[in-house]
Write a structure and sequence with these properties.
It is built from 15 helices and 13 strands. With about 375 residues, it is α/β, with parallel strands linked by helices. It has a seven-stranded mixed beta sheet, with helices on both faces. A four-stranded antiparallel beta sheet has the order 9-10-13-12. Strands 1-11 form a two-stranded parallel sheet. The longest helix is centred in the last third of the chain and has 16 residues, at about 285-300. Bound molecules: 4'-deoxy-4'-aminopyridoxal-5'-phosphate (PMP) and glutamine.
C-alpha cells in the first residue's frame, strides 16, 4: 500500500523515546512530565462511587453538565469572569486534544500560526496536519521571555492565530501583565485567534499571579483556553481536560469534537464535578510543587549542572557546560545509559533542533526519587 504521510519527518516523540530508554536502563526518570506519587484517594473513591452507582454510559457531547457548572464556578472564583457552562465549556480527553481541536476548528490550508519555541511538541504537528504553517519565534534565553518586537515583525495577512503557554513547558517561564498588554496590542483590529495553553494554571510559584486569558474579557472573545485535570490532580493518565471559548467559537469546536471523541469518560467527570468543590485541593498545589522545585534545586547544587529559573510548571532546566560541550540529546542519552537518570533535551522542543545546551528535569517526584537522581548526577 502507498501512503502519503500527513506528517513527514515526524518520528516518535521525545517523551516516549526517553521514557522507553529510562525503562530499558532502569534509570530514574526525570524526563517525561508525570508525578510518581499517588493521586488524592478522595478523588479515586469518588470515581469508584460513580462507577458503582451506574454513571457508566455516554455523557452529553459537551461534557457532564455538573462538571461544566463546577468549572464555571471555579473560573468565577479564581478570575472573576462569568463563563456560561452550557455554551462556553467543552470537556475533552486531555489538554492536548483541546489544543488540537482548537487548531482544527480555525485553521485553513495556508494559514500561519505564531508559535514560541521551545514549544510543547504537539503544537507544530497539530498546525501542519491542518495544512497550515507554524511561524516560529524563539523565546529569549536564558529566562525565555517573549520578544514582542519579533512577534510584531512576524505578523502577516495570513496570521490566523498565536499560541501561548504559561506557565511554560519546558522552561517554567511565565507571562506577565506586560505580556498581556503586548498581546492585546498585537491582536487589536485583527482577526487573529489566541490559543492559550494553561494546563499548568495551578503550578505557579513565588507568589506570581497566573495571567490567565480568562481574566481579560476582551482577549477571551478571540480565545480558546485549554486546561488539563491531569496536571491539577496528579492523574496525567486520566487524559481529561477542557476548553473554554466564547459561544460562537465553542459551537464550531464542538463540531470537530462530536465526530472525533464525541464525549469523555463519564465516571471521572462525575467525580471531578464533586471534587472541584474542594478549593484547597487545587489551591494547595502551587505551594506543594514549589517546595519540590526548591528542594530539587538545592539538591542539584551538589552537581555540576547550573540551574536556570523556573517560576511554574513542574519543570526546571539546567545548563551543563561544566560537564560537556556536546549536544543536549547526546548528553541526555548518555546520562540515561551511564548515570542512570533520564531527562529531556530542550532541543526536542525546537522544530530545527536548536540546541541551547540545556536539559529539562521534571521535579514532580517523590523526594526520595529526586534524592536518588541527584546522588547519581553528582558523580558525573
Ligand atoms: N500542554 C502542555 C504544555 C503540556 O505540558 C501538557 C502535558 N502533557 C499538555 C498540554 C497536555 O495535557 P494532557 O495530558 O491533558 O493532554
Ligand atoms: N507533558 C508531558 C511532558 O512534557 C508529557 C506529555 C506526553 O508524554 N505527551 O513531559
Amino acid at each position: 500500500m502507498q501512503l502519503q504521510s500527513k506528517l513527514p519527518g515526524i518520528g516518535t516523540n521525545i517523551f516516549t523515546v526517553m521514557s522507553a530508554l529510562a525503562n530499558e536502563y532502569k534509570a530514574v526518570n526525570l524526563g517525561q512530565g508525570f508525578p510518581d506519587f499517588p493521586m488524592n484517594h478522595e478523588l479515586t473513591d469518588l470515581v469508584n462511587w460513580a462507577m458503582k452507582n451506574n454513571f457508566n454510559q455516554y455523557s452529553p457531547m459537551p461534557g457532564w453538565l455538573p462538571l461544566r457548572e463546577a468549572i464555571a464556578g471555579k473560573v468565577e472564583f479564581l478570575y472573576q469572569t462569568k463563563i456560561n457552562a452550557d455554551t462556553e465549556i467543552t470537556i475533552t480527553p486531555g489538554g492536548t486534544y483541546a489544543i488540537y481541536s482548537a487548531f482544527t476548528t480555525i485553521l485553513q490550508p495556508g494559514d500561519e500560526v505564531i508559535v514560541f519555541e521551545p514549544a510543547y511538541d504537539s503544537y507544530i504537528p497539530n498546525i501542519e496536519i491542518n495544512g497550515a504553517k507554524a511561524v516560529t519565534i524563539n523565546l529569549v534565553y536564558p529566562d525565555y521571555h517573549i520578544d514582542w518586537a519579533a512577534v510584531k515583525k512576524a505578523i502577516t495577512s495570513r496570521t490566523k492565530a498565536i499560541i501561548i503557554n504559561s506557565p511554560h513547558n519546558p522552561t517554567g517561564s511565565v507571562i506577565t501583565e506586560n505580556d498581556i498588554n503586548e498581546l492585546r496590542d498585537v491582536v487589536a483590529n485583527t482577526n487573529i485567534f489566541i490559543i492559550s495553553d494553561e494546563v499548568y494554571e495551578h503550578l505557579i510559584f513565588d507568589n506570581i499571579l497566573h495571567q490567565s486569558i480568562l481574566r481579560y474579557n476582551d482577549l477571551l472573545q478571540r480565545s480558546f483556553v485549554c486546561f488539563s485535570f491531569g496536571k491539577v490532580y496528579n492523574c496525567t493518565g486520566w487524559k481529561l481536560g477542557y476548553c473554554i471559548a466564547p459561544p460562537e467559537l465553542t459551537r464550531e469546536l464542538r463540531k470537530v469534537h462530536q465526530f472525533n471523541c464525541f464525549s469523555c469518560h463519564t465516571p471521572s467527570q462525575v467525580a471531578l464535578a464533586q471534587f472541584l468543590q474542594n478549593k484547597d485541593a487545587y489551591l494547595s498545589l502551587s505551594a506543594f510543587m514549589q517546595q519540590k522545585r526548591d528542594y530539587f534545586i538545592s539538591l542539584m547544587s551538589r552537581t555540576r549542572f547550573d540551574m536556570l529559573e523556573s517560576h511554574g510548571s513542574y519543570f526546571v532546566c539546567a545548563k551543563y557546560d561544566r560537564i560537556s560541550d556536546g549536544g543536549d540529546k547526546d548528553l541526555a542519552i548518555r546520562l540515561t545509559k551511564e548515570a542512570g537518570v533520564a531527562t529531556i533535551p530542550v532541543s526536542a522542543f525546537y522544530h530545527n533542533a536548536k540546541d541551547d545546551k540545556v536539559l529539562r528535569f521534571c521535579f514532580s517526584k517523590k523526594n526520595e526519587t529526586l534524592e536518588m537522581a541527584v546522588e547519581k548526577l553528582s558523580k558525573i
